[in-house]
Amino acid sequence: MSRIAIFGYGSLASPKSAALSLGRPVEPAAVVRIRGWRRRWNGFRDNAAVEKTFALGDGTVPPYVVGLNIERDPASEGANGVLIEVTEGEVERLDLRELRYDRVEVDAEIEPLGDTGLPDFDRVVLYTAKAVHRMAQAPPGAIVIAEYVRTVEAAFAALGPGQLDLFHETTDPPPVEPSEATLVADRIPPGNPRRW
Hints:
The protein is an alpha+beta fold. The protein has helices at residues 15-22, 88-97, 146-157, 163-169, and strands at residues 4-8, 30-34, 37-46, 52-56, 64-72, 79-86, 101-105, 110-112, 123-129, 143-144, 181-186.
């Protein structure tokens, strides 16, 4: 049986978030870097038309929600993240969570951070936003959900000294100030995040 890992570069770097989707406790197999890729806040979804709709404190429903994405960037030293060991069935489950993203194999581009080396995985995959869910700049009225930012930053801070700083160094800044938002329409598949 082949060993598979997911490269978590955003909310999947949070063990609690990953466990929600996988239905089991999650511990990162390794803290790594992916050469030639950069995180950007350029993934988006139509807030009213998809499986979850969020409103601001005044009841306003923003037209779009912006999230993290990762893209090839030959000039980048590489974004940091985690490897999470998964089964084929769990990869299919994550495909449902990451429905606006394409799964891409990246095993040759993964490098260890620190002295730990890499676990022996046969395949490493990540999720990158589908072309129809990427934007060059945030559409008018778009928001970044503050709870999402807090979850991702807490996950990287928990990875050890310097990891949150490296996250910021290898991630473009959010295109808009993060906003507090509440879920107001829930058509979310079981196991998918409901806080962002």
